[in-house]
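User: My advisor asked me to double-check a structure prediction for Oligopeptide ABC transporter permease before group meeting. I don't want to rely on an old file, so could you generate it fresh from this sequence?
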Amino acid sequence: MWKFIIRRLLIMIPQIAILSIFIFILAKLMPGDALTGMIEPGVDPARLVELREQLGLNNPWYVQYIDWVKNIFQGDFGRSFQFKVPVTTVIGERLANTFWLSLATLILTYLLAIPLGIISGRYNDTWIDRLVTGYTYVGFAIPIFIFGLIMVWVFGFQLNWFPTSGSVSPNAVPGTFDYVLSKIRHLLLPALSMSLIAVVGTVQYLRNEIIDTKHKDFIITARSKGASESRIYNRHILRNSLIPIAAFFGYEITGLIGGTIFIESIFSYPGMGQLFIQSIHLRDFSVVTALVLLFGVAAVLGALLSDIILSYVDPRIRIK
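Assistant: Sure, here is a fresh prediction for Oligopeptide ABC transporter permease from the sequence you gave:
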């Protein structure tokens, strides 16, 4: 097991290196450079040339890339052109909101997906299975930004059950119970919107696993020995069907990255996804570069986590 993990970690290193090169080259192709956010309009052109030389902007791209990587290892992602502060400060202010939104989405996704998948798989080809399956087909077809807009319109503006923007009420005092309650109220609707879409893949997978397991030889043997249906489901079918679902946990992280970018923008939720869209509009490429790199690393780590769980569930993967 440890050999497999170490091998996967070693594979991950060139993946992240190639990703960082790709991101850096794309950033260099964007209009503007590191001076864009540091100088005021009307600066003497001679001073500009001097500053470009001091910052190494006249160096070949690979020299600039090496300097960029060295700074990242020291925790320096550069300076935001728009906010005039270090990029780490800008991202740090939004990181907690995105973390709690992602955590709430993951919890809601599994709380909804597992019961729906079990019911749909156990009572397949019944009206309730058709209802759940129909919902998953609709969920697959609706883009998340369309679904998010519908949720805002229905539960935010029509029913007025949830706030439609922000992460906390302006008059809430940090450290009080009302502040925590306000944070939860602002978090629920975007998290629910993402989880209702994220749930469809897990429901379909769990349903199919249960249906396949129901017809395997060891289940037929258990029935022939007179075991009750509840015992067969709880001790054999569910145990074997639920384990592979855990392997999807890592891939859910990758899906959440894309989801937060759209959902945070729709709900004006001040997280990393909204910051990413804002930075693209403002051409704040220091922030964009840092966020793309962080999102990419998170996706690679999510895939690594899924592979480790899969290898634990199915040891044959380690051998391959």
